[in-house]
Amino acid sequence: MLKLVGSLRPAVALFRTSSAAQPSVCLSTGPQQEHRTFYEFRTYNIRPDQNAAFLKLTNEKIHLRTAHSELIGYWSVEYGGLNQVFHIWKYDSYSQRAAVRAALAQDPSWISEYISKALPMLTSQDNEVTYLVPWSQLKSPPQEGGVYELASLQMRPGGPAVWGSTFQASMASRDAPGYGKLLGAFHSEFGLLNRVHALWWFESADHRAEIRHKAHTDARVVAAVRNNVVHLDSQRNQLMLPCPFSPMK
After folding, report:
1. Separation of alpha carbons 163 and 38, rounded Å
2. pLDDT for 19
3. Confidence (pTM)
4. Which of 63, 165, 196, 209 is the most buried (most CB within 10 A)?
5. Nearest-CA neighbor of 132 among 38, 241, 239?
């Protein structure tokens, strides 16, 4: 038995030396957030018979809400969801958002004139906390009018360290040649993880269809999409129209 143990010692030492020689593993899943600003995505599903009434009420009373924090955009979903609105709110920190929610809960005008009337018109609400990806900045549309597309991609687990570069390349392959105007690229922090969103602007739905057809014949776009799709589980696209009170029109 002593001879067997003695014979194993060189092998164990070799194994330890081999393991120690391996490069250290980076535990980061991607570039770290450099600032605290985040964007809350909110989606409301409206009772079909109350859609027009909800939009009218919100148009008249949205100032009660924007008095508390910054609204980036507010849209009605045209394709990819019925009787649905989508809006983006900007916050500098989680403590700021908590303070805003507390103030709204104590705002009698907000409660009596809007939220008490709006909530019965809804069937469900959902929210998601997102950050701009490090290489993206929030941009304004080139002109008022037009339509917006929210492309939501559910990536495979692993984080931006695994799929960040291919996602960026696939977005750049469409944005740089003018196959749409990329206004912002976001990744999720709360909600479904490993999820990224791209907010695009187009002159019209027909304009989107035309340039999307052209993009499908561009070898650079096709190659970038193929490289990214290996990391993709699912994707959902929604075409949205800005509401009259939306800062992004």
Report:
1. 21
2. 41
3. 0.85
4. 196
5. 38
Q: Which of 131, 150, 148, 141 is nearest to 40 (CA)?
A: 131
Alpha-carbon gap, residue 125 to 198, rounded angstroms: 21
The tokens describing 13, both together, are 């030492």
Residue 177: predicted pLDDT: 84
Identity at 94, one-letter amino acid code: Y
What is the rounded distance in angstroms from the CA atom of residue 249 to the CA atom of residue 245? 8
- pLDDT score of 56: 98
Let me know: does 6 contact 99? Beta carbons within 8 Å.
no
247 vs 39: CA distance, rounded Å: 15
Quote the pLDDT of residue 176: 83
Helix axes of 160-175 and 219-229: crossing angle, nearest 10 degrees:
160
3-state secondary structure 164-222: HHHHHHHHHHHHCCCCCEEEEEEEEEECCCCEEEEEEEECCHHHHHHHHHHHCCCHHHH
- What is the sign, positive or negative, of the torsion defined by CA atoms of 171, 175, 177, 178? positive
pLDDT, tens digit, 9 for 90 and up, residues 93-113 = 999 999 999 999 999 999 999
Return the sign of the alpha-carbon dihedral for residues 70, 74, 80, 81: positive
Number of neighbouring beta carbons within 10 Å of residue 162: 16
**Residues of 174-209 as b/e, b for ≥16 C-beta within 10 angstroms?**
bbeeebbbbbbbbbbeeeeebbbbbbbbbbeeeebe
The residue written with tokens 């394709």 in the block is 79
The list of the chain residues with pLDDT below 50 reads 1-29
**The predicted structure's pLDDT at residue 34:** 62
